Amino acid sequence: MNISLLVFIAALTTAPLISYAEVKTPGYIGDQPTNETRGDRVFVFIHGLSSNGGQNAVTTWTSSDGKFWPQMLHDDPDFQGVDVFVADYETSAWAPNTFRSVSQGLESQLLEAGIENYSEIYFIAHSLGGVALRRAILDSDILRHKTSALFMFAVPNGGASLADLVYYVPRAGPLVALLKTTEGDSDSPLDQLKSEWIDSATEIPSFCGFEILPRRRQLVPRESVEPLCTDGISSLSRNHSTVVKPDWADNRREPADPHRLVKKWYNQVLQNNGFVHGVEKFDNREIAIASCPGDREYSAETIRNIRGIVRVNSAGLSVGVTRPMPTQWIHSDYTSQIWDINPPKWVVVHYSCFERSDPNSNIGRNENFILFAKDMLRNGVSILSYSRTFRISKQRRLNICDNFRTSSLLDNQTESAKIYMFEVEDGTIIGGGNAAVNREFGNAIYDVVSNNGEKFFSNQMCQEAFSD
Fold first, then answer.
1. pTM of the model
2. Quick one: how far is CA 79 from the chain centroid?
3. Given a cut of 90, is residue 87 above it in pLDDT?
4. Residue 288 three-state SS
5. Alpha-carbon distance 39 to 99, whole Å?
6. CA pair distance 147, 160, nearest whole angstrom
């Protein structure tokens, strides 16, 4: 066997000599999540190139003293409520597998594991795994719409120079050929992938870490890692295989280890999405979920679940959650409490949001909602309102519509800012455990934001109520 190929494979698949019998891959860390136990977010670990019989799904992420990074992340209180999945797919340097077949195998494994059931997916990828992951995301609408961030380590977007030599070794498979450097070769699969990713306008934050050891010649240097890194790039005093080993020592000269970096990047993504100190605020997002104080059943968990449903069915729009709403909406300057500068395009709000009005006030739920709605429409924000009240009886709907009409609310709507009304079955809670109700709600959201939801338009629904 050619010594260059041995060196190349060893460099990309170095592993400590310990037993991994207790680690099962592919799979979730801890118990397999169910519909009842599944969280809103999942972290997925994607390994890189391997040799035949390799255990890269474990060895890639395990330090010399036996620390397994996926388990560390799962146990870290800063990632509380986050599920963790470790992928294990065929990436043999010797096999005749094509790049496309490898990425399709990865995609199939993720979907079979139920990754699409999460509203937010965060990927941690090493080396070839990052390249295969981008290919899978481009080929899958589900992965593309649900991926919240990419955390990439030593991913050879521009190839690896050693692969230029190893390419001519007879036993080298297509994946080694894929890793050839791409400079001056616009027909290379890596350059084609980069062009397709840019052309697709896929707005997924990409953070990258790169190796700086050995000093003179890194296997995948910064200039190869940097393309497509949109939100941050950091160096690590590691070589290609140890760049994802969680063996942080008391070495004050090292600025970061991979776990610290991912924690920093993850917090940055949450802050950009409006998640601060456990309560989400809204700004620069296209859809806002109203955090209502009035409805007794509108808990923090329910808000989180609604956000997940909306995000899945938002046709790729960004979704956030407002600050807690006031108990009464009597001043137009309250808008500053639910966004900072830029208003959303849509706000999703329960009609009973102001159910617990001040008992000493003469302003009730309907009046509060009308004042709130007028302020939203005045700011160009469409309202996606849902309630069982809309379905409970024709008379109740007629009463609501009559209030809308007498307050001129129906006349205040424009082509760009409207009120939509979703009927909910009596006794059910959006975001609760009724999958059929959640699915119906999600489909309605998708119809409206995709400009195909006129049947939910309040003017049309009220006209039908008046004609009845």
1. 0.64
2. 14
3. yes
4. strand
5. 32
6. 27
Q: What does each C-alpha distance from 120 to 42, 200, 230 come to in angstroms?
A: 7, 20, 19
**What is the spatial distance between Cα 149 and Cα 41, in angstroms, rounded to a whole number?**
11
For every residue of 104-150, DSSP letters joined together read HHHHHHHHHTTGGGSSEEEEEEETHHHHHHHHHHHH-HHHHHHEEEE
Euclidean distance between CA atoms 372 and 419, whole angstroms? 12
88 neighbors 57 (Cβ within 8 angstroms): yes
What pLDDT digit, counting tens, does each position of 281-334 carry?
A: 556 678 988 877 655 566 666 777 788 788 888 887 888 877 777 777 877 767
Cis? peptide before 26, omega within 30° of 0: yes
Please list, in sequence order, all residues whose beta carbon lies within 8 angstroms of the beta carbon of residue 378, skipping any fewer than 6 positions away. 332, 412
Instruction: Give me 341's structure tokens.
Output: 């500068």
Contact of 119 with 40, CB cutoff 8 Å: yes
Angle separating helix axes 99-112 and 128-139, nearest 10 degrees: 70
pLDDT value for 274: 56
Q: What residues contact residue 415 under an 8 Å CB cut-off, 6+ apart?
A: none
Residue 68: CA atoms inside 13 Å, Cβ hemisphere, count?
A: 21
Q: In Å, how far from its chain's centre is CA 203?
A: 11
Rounded CA-CA distance 16/255 in Å is 24
Res. 252 pLDDT band, cuts 50 70 90: very low
More confident residue, 275 or 157: 157
Check if the beta carbon of residue 89 is closer than 8 Å to that of residue 131. no
Instruction: For residue 147, count other CB atoms closer than 10 A to its CB.
Output: 21
Alpha-carbon dihedral sign for residues 424, 427, 429, 433: negative
pLDDT at residue 421 above 80? yes
Copy the structure tokens of residue 323: 């600050």
- Asked whether 142 and 111 are in contact (CB, 8 A), the reply is yes
Q: What token pair was written down for 275?
A: 């998640």
Residue 39, SS3 per DSSP: coil
